[in-house]
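dude i think i finally got it to work??
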Amino acid sequence: MRPGGGGRAVPDARFLSVDPATEEIVGEAPDAAPADMDAAIGAAREAFDTGTWASDPSLRARCLRQLREALTGHADELRELTVAEAGCPAW
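look at this
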């Protein structure tokens, strides 16, 4: 079990991501039920509405810049994973 939305524990279920072109396993991801998703969305909504994120524009800007830098720094890797998961050629 691991912590879930709102501090609720959820099973450690996983599913495999398979490249449909090669049938090679390219990764795995958490597997959740719709109720798990609803709980996570509810917890995120509560944190957004009541946390510092909603009231501190400089925090939001700093977090978004950090996210941009992380995504940009891993762009090639993310592109390769996306192409493999979709099973389509990169143009």
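Helices lie at 34-50, 52-55, 57-73, 75-86.
im so relieved honestly
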